[in-house]
Amino acid sequence: MEEACGVFGIYAPGVEVASLVFDGIFALQHRGQESAGIAVSDNVSITVVKDLGLVTRVFDKNTLQSLSGCIGLGHVRYSTAGKKDWMSAQPAYRSAGEVGFALGHNGNLTNVEELASLANMLPGVFTSDSDIVAELISQRINFLQSQQVPDTKDSFESNDTTCVPEENDKNNLLLAALFDILPRTQGAFSFGLIDANQLIAIRDPNGFRPLCLGKLPSGNNSPTSYAIASESPALDIVGADFIREIQPGEVLVIDEAGLRSYFPFPKEQIKPSLCLFEFVYFARPDAVLCGSEVHATRLRMGMHLAMQAPADADLVIGVPDSGVPAAEGFAMQSGIPYGQGLVKNRYIGRTFITPNQKARTDAVRRKLNPLKENVKGKRLVVVDDSIVRGTTIRQIVSILRDVGATEVHLRVSSPPFKWPCFYGIDTPSREELLAAKYTEEEMMDILDVDSISYLSLESLFAAVNVGRNGFCDACLTGNYPTKIPVTL
Ligand code: AMP
Q1: What CATH number labels 5-272?
Q2: Residue from 5, 212, 275, 421 carrying the catalytic annotation
Q3: In DSSP terms, which residues pair with 407 in a beta bridge?
Q4: pLDDT of 1 above 50
Q5: Predicted confidence (pLDDT) per residue in 228-254, tens digit
Q6: How far is Cα 375 from Cα 284, in angstroms, rounded to an integer?
């Protein structure tokens, strides 16, 4: 199981943006560690640098200096579809006649084969779902340019919406191509795009993955600068003020004339379904989602968990890092002291990345070491945000028992993870999902714990605190908000 990607874009006339894009994607590194890339436009042409590896490995001072321009797009990738090679690193760049553009994608498309055949791309030719979209856009731009007078009207009117381009966009070929392609694109996509003169932000009609807009402070006579980011901390880091989230189904154009917003998808497709797991695990704790800071939401998850499933214990510990805020909430609510039981080696990568079970198990041991004096002789409440295959928690319980924990009460700050995700998280098959296969009693045995409790879906919604509507909880309930590509 791997996680979604990160996208960051900036439009800042008169400013060299490469280092700001670097800061933006560095702040989003937790969303993808496989490859990193930056595209920059100097209002004439676009330069792209991308490679496999972490942001700090791909970019140094010299590479950033080679990227000159005031419009930028950055991407960190964790592949959920497609190959894990250089070609699949993003932003994807295409040159279509007069128009060069770069695209960065967070999410996962669910009608890849249909789109590939629309693009006349044979199986094996395309590297990823994002690559197919870039190809389709470029084909459409080429088609529009092949007309004596590019007739963008057709594209703008080819969908069921009354999406009329504003005066400034009458000859916007990239936008016209997008209006044609986007309504055919299904699944999860938060896209950032740049061409020579504009930055475009797009969220799919379900808004599965987050994307937000910020504004940079500008001098007296300088034009307004904007940034877009998968998560708000990337805006904070470049000094941009959060303005709002991009709406599900919105296409936002940012250029010298300012901001223009379009909704090119058929109305019945607009069905807000933000991934609940962004709150549980993916997003940084300092990210603001649906108006609240994720850390506070996670504290509330822990508090609800303590109300729902109390335990008689001496110490509450969290599994670093993502289990910690919920553990704090559990302790606050229950009155049981909170303490640190495990130390994480912060220089180690993600244990999910490792290829097989033995390697994953060893990786947990290398990553987490117990604080023996804190744990010895104690009845522990151990809080983690989720159990997927059970690899992490099984190892942790054995580590804690080895150093003398007398009881282990496992509390999970999300409901059982039972269904695969098709919207940007590469989940193991259903057979590998522990909660899909075993009852709680069996799991107590497998994990060697004295009790186990999950946060209920109701309590999770209560912790998120913005009502029940507008979220995707498919991995927890099996209720997929769109058609999925397989039968389960
Ligand atoms: P597992 O070890 O397979 O049970 O996975 C659960 C652990 O991985 C928990 O400690 C989570 O914090 C973490 N986790 C949950 N979702 C993801 C994800 N999509 N990518 C990486 N780690 C995750």
Answers
A1: 3.60.20.10
A2: 5
A3: 379
A4: no
A5: 999 999 999 999 999 999 999 999 999
A6: 28
